[in-house]
């Protein structure tokens, strides 16, 4: 009985393939007729090949992502750390310094921008997206609208931004963006509740489908926050649950796995746990999670740094790349690439060169870690200082 109905379903789904029922024009979604179920629909239409190419280019050997997509409020915190006011000229000066670093493209394959930067030009009048393109760096864009409290949960949050996302994404594509980022969070000390995990996974999946439909490779980022005193085993347990739901809903939304990138947290003990874990232990747990939950069709895993020190984040990445992986395992760091740069810059024009040198040092170290060839020998003491902030908002 079961196999007979399965055969019937298979027959009807292959009919759907044969009928070529989905619309191939840019930006239009596939449409199913009222109550038929199809198992073969792909939502990204004619962007599929381009999405796969984009994802491959970001996930290219020895390269990773520079994340500078801080909202204006968070950018203000970065600037305040060196005594600067949160003004547009100051944000521009800082981001221009980062993106115009000579030789950056050797180590950096993509840059995640905040909307302000995507539409900005340098003080010499060159569009930021062109600065990136010239270095073979793919421009990306943060598309989520941030976290707000999730009613009915245990003091948890959900991520806003789906309303109007399709039209915004189409505009970002026109402006030169080729990938997108949506960061939602899961808190271990708050539960996490089944509701919060489901909401995070569903939101990421809807965003991913909409991004692909508009030519943007979605970076899927359910950040499992470092906050808490839990063990590394507890983090693994929660991460497995989160990623199983994320992939369930990605599949339900017909997201093309070859055209996405992931941005997970590494599997570590909570920041306030009594014992620290070594890079080898973090690599062992994190790779266990990835092997159990991430299909090899996914081209790239681009980790966030989450408050680890610059050197810690690099050492952990290196430990994961000592043996070959089915995916490109790399970085998409904000704090762990920017900390030394800010300290070197201090907002002074005469320090721009030194700050760019600091960025190149970090970018090269992470490039080596992507290839499993990094050693922390000779690293500055500053780069070893943790950046964890309890209850950090991005
Ligand atoms: P961090 O590397 O600072 O955790 O940044 C995470 C992020 O989502 C940036 O895009």
Give an overview in words.
The protein is an alpha/beta fold. 43% of the residues lie in helices and 13% in strands. The chain has a single domain, classed as Aldolase class I (TIM Barrel, Alpha-Beta Barrel), CATH 3.20.20.70. The protein contains 13 helices and ten strands. It has an eight-stranded parallel beta barrel, surrounded by seven helices. It has a two-stranded antiparallel sheet with strand order 4-5. The chain is globular and about 50 Å long. The protein starts with a helix and ends in a 24-residue tail after the last helix. The protein binds 1,3-dihydroxyacetonephosphate. 1,3-dihydroxyacetonephosphate binds at residues 67, 69, 112, 181, 183, 221, 304-306, 333-336, 394.
Q: What's the alpha carbon Rg, rounded to whole Å? A: 21 Å
Give me the secondary-structure category. alpha/beta
Quickly count the domains. Answer: 1
The N- and C-terminal alpha carbons lie at a distance of 53 Å
Going by CATH, what is the homologous superfamily? Answer: Aldolase class I
Using the coordinates shown, work out and report the CATH topology: TIM Barrel
Strand order of the largest sheet: 1-2-3-6-7-8-9-10
Can you tell me the CATH class? Answer: Alpha Beta
Which ligands accompany this protein? 1,3-dihydroxyacetonephosphate
Sheet-strand content, in percent, reads 5-15%
Helix share of residues?
40-55%
Q: Could you list the spans in which at least 5 consecutive residues all have pLDDT below 50?
A: 1-34
Average pLDDT, rounded to a whole number, is 90
| Helical segment count | 13
How many beta-strand segments?
10
Order of helices and strands: HHEHHEHHEEEHEHEHEHEHEHH
Shape: globular
- Proper CATH architecture: Alpha-Beta Barrel
Q: What composes the largest sheet? A: 8 strands, parallel, barrel
Keywords: Chloroplast, Glycolysis, Lyase, Plastid, Schiff base
Subcellular location: Plastid, Chloroplast
Organism: Aquilegia coerulea
Pathway: Carbohydrate degradation; glycolysis; D-glyceraldehyde 3-phosphate and glycerone phosphate from D-glucose: step 4/4
């Amino acid at each position: 009985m079961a196999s007979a109905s399965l055969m019937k379903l298979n027959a009807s789904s292959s009919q759907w393939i044969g009928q070529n029922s989905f619309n191939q024009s840019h930006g239009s979604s596939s449409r199913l007729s009222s109550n038929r179920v199809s198992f073969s629909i792909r939502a990204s239409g004619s962007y599929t090949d381009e999405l796969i190419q984009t994802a491959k280019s970001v996930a290219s050997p020895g390269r990773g992502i520079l994340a500078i997509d801080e909202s204006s409020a968070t950018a203000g915190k970065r600037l305040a750390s060196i005594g600067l006011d949160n003004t547009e000229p100051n944000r521009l000066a800082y981001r221009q310094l980062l993106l115009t670093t000579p030789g950056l493209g050797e180590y950096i394959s993509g840059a995640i921008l905040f909307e302000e930067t995507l539409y900005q030009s340098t003080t010499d009048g060159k569009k930021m997206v062109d600065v990136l393109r010239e270095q073979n760096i793919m421009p990306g864009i943060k598309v989520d609208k941030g976290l707000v409290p999730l009613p009915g949960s245990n003091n948890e949050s959900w991520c806003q931004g789906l309303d109007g996302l399709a039209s915004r994404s189409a505009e970002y594509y026109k402006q030169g963006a080729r990938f997108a980022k949506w960061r939602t969070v899961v808190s271990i000390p708050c539960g996490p509740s089944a509701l919060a995990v489901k909401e995070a996974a569903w939101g990421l999946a809807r965003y991913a489908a909409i991004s692909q439909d508009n030519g943007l490779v979605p970076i899927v980022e359910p950040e499992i926050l470092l906050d808490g005193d839990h063990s590394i085993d507890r983090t693994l347990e929660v991460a497995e649950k989160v990623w199983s739901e994320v992939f369930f809903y990605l599949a339900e939304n017909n997201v093309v796995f070859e055209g996405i990138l992931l941005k997970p947290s590494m599997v570590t003990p909570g920041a306030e746990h009594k014992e620290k874990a070594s890079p080898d232990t973090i690599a062992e747990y994190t790779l266990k999670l990835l092997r159990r939950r991430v299909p090899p069709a996914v081209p790239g895993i681009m980790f966030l740094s989450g408050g680890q020190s610059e050197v810690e984040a690099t050492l952990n990445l290196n430990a994961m790349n000592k043996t070959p992986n089915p995916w490109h395992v790399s970085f998409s760091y904000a704090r762990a690439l920017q900390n030394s740069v800010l300290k070197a810059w201090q907002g002074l024009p005469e320090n721009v060169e030194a700050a760019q040198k600091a960025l190149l040092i970090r970018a090269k170290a992470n490039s080596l870690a992507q290839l499993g060839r990094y050693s922390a020998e000779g690293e500055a003491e500053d780069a070893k200082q943790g950046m964890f902030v309890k209850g950090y908002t991005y």
